[in-house]
Design brief:
The chain has one domain: TIM Barrel (Alpha-Beta Barrel). About 40% of the residues lie in helices and about 15% in strands. The protein is built from 11 helices and 8 strands. The protein has an 8-stranded parallel β-barrel, surrounded by 5 helices. Helix 1 packs parallel to helix 2, helix 1 packs across helix 11 and helix 5 crosses helix 7. It is globular and about 45 Å long. Bound molecules: 1,3-dihydroxyacetonephosphate (13P).
Length: about 250
């Protein structure tokens, strides 16, 4: 059976009241499907609302969009992995392109954050992806491989096999330009090969999600592409009806 992952990244949207209304609609209308999990990455201030809404549901899980790599300390404005875990998060996005390109997060920092997530029992979704300039220079596979290796450096093979990877080409995020299924399939196949070279056959179990302008119209063709095991969705996950349609697709 497939083990699909549908992940909603709400970015800096959905205050607690909006998140509560969304979750009432979604949980009320979404029936469990055996071949998939649905993950929600709300703003940290709305995490408790989502955690509360899904507590009876094993197929729905919540996470945070970012963590600091230290477990605790004087880091004003930051959230640690143990704090997020204590608030009910089970997942965390690491190295999202907006963290890398808006906030200057480095490959080395993503590696420290992956280690911190795993120490605290959070499942990291490791985000990788090239810019348009890098794609045009033919560097896509080199960039994605470098980002993946840096993120998992020093992680035990068995633990690495429990993580999730997301391929999000920077030029496709929030632009309405999604990668073609063939483009996505080529990069996903390269990521799968890299995972196998890092951890052997266990690398086959890691879901590889596609993200970047996914919507209800293009989701089926993307899910049919080689090694695409789910989707990580921004804008189209903010509307409960559209997110319901996406989570039921494939
Ligand atoms: P969009 O779906 O809005 O393009 O965002 C993708 C993304 O960054 C998900 O993490």
């Amino acid at each position: 059976m497939r083990n699909l992952v549908f992940a909603a990244n709400w970015k800096m949207h959905q205050a607690p009241a909006d998140a509560a209304a969304f979750m009432r609609t979604f949980v009320g209308q979404y029936a469990r499907q055996q071949d998939r999990r649905v993950l929600f990455f709300p703003s940290a201030v709305s995490l408790h609302v989502v955690v509360q809404a899904i507590k009876e549901r094993a197929d729905l899980e919540a996470g945070v969009q970012n963590i600091h790599w230290e477990d605790k300390g004087a880091f004003t404005g930051e959230t640690s992995a143990p704090l997020a875990r204590g608030a009910g998060a089970r997942h965390v996005l690491i190295g999202h392109s907006e963290r890398r390109h808006v906030f200057g997060e480095t490959d080395e920092e993503t590696g420290k954050k992956v280690a911190a997530a795993l120490r605290a029992g959070l499942t990291p979704t490791i985000c990788v992806g090239e810019t348009l300039a890098q794609r045009e220079r033919g560097e896509t596979l080199a960039v994605v491989t470098r980002q993946l290796r840096a993120a998992v450096a020093g992680i035990d093979a068995g633990v690495l096999a429990t993580t999730i990877v997301a391929y999000e080409p920077v030029w496709a995020i929030g632009t309405g330009k999604n990668a073609t299924p063939a483009d996505a399939g080529e990069v996903h196949s390269a990521i799968r090969a890299e995972l196998r070279s890092l951890v052997g056959e266990r690398g086959a179990a890691v879901p590889i999600l596609y993200g970047g302008s996914v919507n209800r119209s293009n989701v089926d063709s993307l899910l049919a592409a080689s090694e695409v095991g789910g989707v990580l969705v921004g804008g189209a996950s903010l509307d409960a009806e559209q997110w319901l349609a996406i989570a039921r697709s494939g």
